[in-house]
Amino acid sequence: MLIANHKTRNPFYKPGNWIVILTFFIFSHISYAQQYHCLGKVYDEETGRSMAFVNIVANNSNIGTATDIDGKFLVVSETPINLLRFSYVGYEPLVIEILGEANNLVIHLRRSATELREIVILAGENPAHRIIQKVIENRDKNDPEQLKSFSYTSYDKMIFTIDTLEIPEEANEVGDSSSYKIKKFLKDKDFFLMETVSERKYLAPDRNHEKIIATRISGFKDPLLLFLSSQLQSTSFYKELIKIGDKNYINPLSKGSFKKYFFMIEDTTYTPNFDTLFIISFKQRDNTNFEGLKGVLTINSNGWAIQNVIAEPSVTNDGISMVIQQKYEFIDDKYWFPVQLNTDIIFNNVSIEGFSPKGQGKSYLKDIVLNPDMVKRDFKRETIGFDLLAGERDEVFWNIYRNDSLSERDLKTYSFIDSIGEKANLDRKVKTLKALIDNRLPVGFMDINLSKLIHYNQHEGLYLGLGLLTNQKFSETISIGGFWGYGLHDKRAKYGGDVTLLLNRYKDTKLKIGYYDFATETGGTTFFDDSENAFNPAMYRQFYIKRMDQTTRMEAAFSFKPHRYANLNFGFHRDKKIPTYEYLFQKSDTYIEDNVVQNNFHFTGFSSGFRLAIKEKFLQMPDTRISLGTNWPVIWFNYTLGVGGLLESEFSYNKFDVKVEYKKFFRYFGESKIIIRGGFIDKPIPCANLYNGMGAYSKFAIYATEAFVTMDATEFLADQYLFAFYSHSFGKLLFGNRRFAPELSIASNFGIGDLNQSQYHQGIDFKVMNQLYCESGLLLNNLLKFQGFYSLGASVFYRYGYYHHPIISNNFTYRIVLNYFF
Predict the structure, then answer these.
(1) CA–CA dist 162, 165 (Å, integer)
(2) Backbone torsions φ then ψ of 613, nearest 5 degrees
(3) ∠ CA 802-806-807 to the nearest 5 degrees?
(4) Average pLDDT over the chain, rounded to whole?
(5) Cα–Cα distances in Å, from 313 out to 217, 284, 704, 739?
(6) Residues 421, 423, 428, 430: what is their CA dihedral angle, to the nearest 10 degrees?
(7) What is the largest CA-CA distance in the chain?
């Protein structure tokens, strides 16, 4: 048998077959990688508003996507798209057939007739709880503000308008009606348009700075309205409390929320990466009373993080209603971070021909950098700052940051409202709003000091006057002010003037020299850099002041900020005080011969004042600074050194004053506030510079905080004291979420003091508070609301303990409670 050598060949090894292999490989991958697209936008069928975070699934798969905050969507599939399924909580599901190209779909969803109701989970644990619990466990990992640092640029756009769909169709037929005029006006423009570009940087745990680098506001040049957009909502939805507008709400993702919130899995889809998306609705449980939210969460199983959230207060506020929307993306394949924020506002307390204006704000975050290298010195003192060139940016600059070009409607809004703004001088109206914050109304190069125009107390009666001071139009560094006024009851004129030199704007370093002839409260205490806002309920105590001294004062003061959270003041003063009441002071010391009595007094000395507000936030505008508050205690401290023998001074003494104010919000329980005040004087001095009891009892009916409601204003006198004023607001916890739901508060005030050498004070009646003074009260706030700007309530206080009156009815005091919503 012949055996021949035979080499078997693979046919693909033939010359040219490699071309066939390569061609097959390329075309097979091209076929595999081919993608199909659908583009469009989703609207509410009834209102015409775009809808964020609508769930969309292609064909019969479970892999889907969602609309962004503008209602836009892009569906990508590796197979031809024949069907699109749309679903959204509270709306009827919709399935549409796709024929041919679908690059500009317009989808309308109809509201469902049924509401989300709390149901009983019969078969064990609510399956939504397992998912929510995982989100809670991963909060710190997914919370952007738990990162070491981050920075981003934000483009914000806000419009204000009226929903013309609310205007009845009959308005189209009545050409002279107000409704018709509004509808015609809003046909191609809005009432208001605002754009901003800002750069934010953050360094854990609490360094935060946002700089406004561009702004444009229709009809306005004054940037104060930027304050509104900066305070609308929290950037992160992972905190225990979620801020919406000026209120804090309990986060449904906080610990223990299962007892307070009802959760339901509404849908489940998958991402192209095969992560699971859980769409979970949440609402406040029935028969629970707290500041809660309702809305929808989209939870991604990748890290158990929020991908989308829509939330609004459970109960519509009589003042402002708000809905927030947030979209998060997985940045650098490491961290979830917000990329789009949306805020809808309805001003229920404002009416334009019977219709409530609405605001629509959208923020787009870009240039996001996570964990960049930062140091503390990179951060300025203010939380929100303003670039002086922000209002002068051109279109080239704006087009770099805008998410989309301005529409014809936007351009007409700018053009029309800008022209109206100049004619109506809208900036002057904004300046009026600013005046309420600063107590200063600008008129040319002068400001009117509103605190010097009018006030009332029981000594002066109605005080009428005028106060003027120069502003930055006069000088950037020097301010000259003065006032004159007259009390209709004491029939005396008051006047004074001062000059302030700004030495360093960044550290707020100032030198002030002044001369005044005015009335001061006997035994009253003021603290350096304390608020004197006329709408602060503590200021109502001035209505009850009875005893005052006619004071002539010369002073010089130097103040500055030694630290981002602290203000410091050093001063020198010379006072001459003449009692306006029958009073004699008798004392023996180096400068007064034994048994000599006096009825006018000279005080000369040095003083220092200190205010510390840890983590206080500020909005720094070009010409003013607005405090955004702090969650930490605020501390004031004064020290006065009286120097006898200097410039006719008759008294040497040391005087120490301290005040601490702290507010604390308790989940599901309300907010507590405590103010502690204390003072000590080491030597006997006339009652003009001692301490009164801070009483606020008389026939005047307005409730004053930080005062003893059942105590007469002149009842006590002390040279050392300790007072505590405590209040707790339950909000709507006790009366539920009904339309009429007054807010209950309780208050308790306590005081103790002493007075050495009380026999030196002759001619006046007073007591020494060497036993504990006690009073407690019950307040019902917001019984009557007026246009959402202010409200009236009622209160009753009872005086008890050592200083109670023998007749029971004399221990009760009744007051009207006046609150403002700004």
Answers:
(1) 9
(2) -130, 90
(3) 135
(4) 84
(5) 28, 10, 30, 14
(6) -20
(7) 153
pLDDT tens sequence across 448-483: 998 899 999 999 999 999 999 998 889 989 999 999
| One domain for residues 99 and 134 | no
* Cα 574 off chain centre by: 40
Instruction: Please tell me whether residues 105 and 67 are part of one structural domain.
Output: yes
Q: How many domains does the chain have?
A: 3
E strands within 522-669?
Answer: 548-563, 566-579, 584-586, 597-598, 601-613, 617-620, 625-629, 634-642, 653-666
Domain of residue 52 covers 33-109
Write out pLDDT tens, residues 303-323. Answer: 999 999 999 888 776 667 788
Closest to 573 measured CA to CA, from 546, 555, 587: 555
pTM of the model: 0.80
pLDDT tens per residue across span 781-798: 888 877 656 789 999 999
Which pairs count as long-range contacts for 87-95, CB under 8 Å and 24+ apart, including other chains?
87/54, 87/55, 87/57, 87/266, 87/267, 87/279, 88/51, 88/53, 88/54, 88/55, 89/116, 89/266, 89/279, 89/281, 89/296, 90/115, 90/116
Polymer length of the chain: 822
Q: Are residues 105 and 131 in the same domain?
A: no
In the block, residue with structure tokens 């009959």: 170
| Residue the block writes with tokens 């506002």 | 345
- For residue 305, give the CATH number of its domain: 2.50.20
Give which of 282, 251, 264, 243 is closest to 139, Cα–Cα. Answer: 251
* Per-residue pLDDT at 167: 56
**Structure confidence by residue, pLDDT tens digits, 42-101:** 999 888 888 989 999 988 888 888 898 889 999 988 888 889 999 998 899 999 998 877
Specify whether the CB–CB gap between 51 and 170 falls below 8 A: no
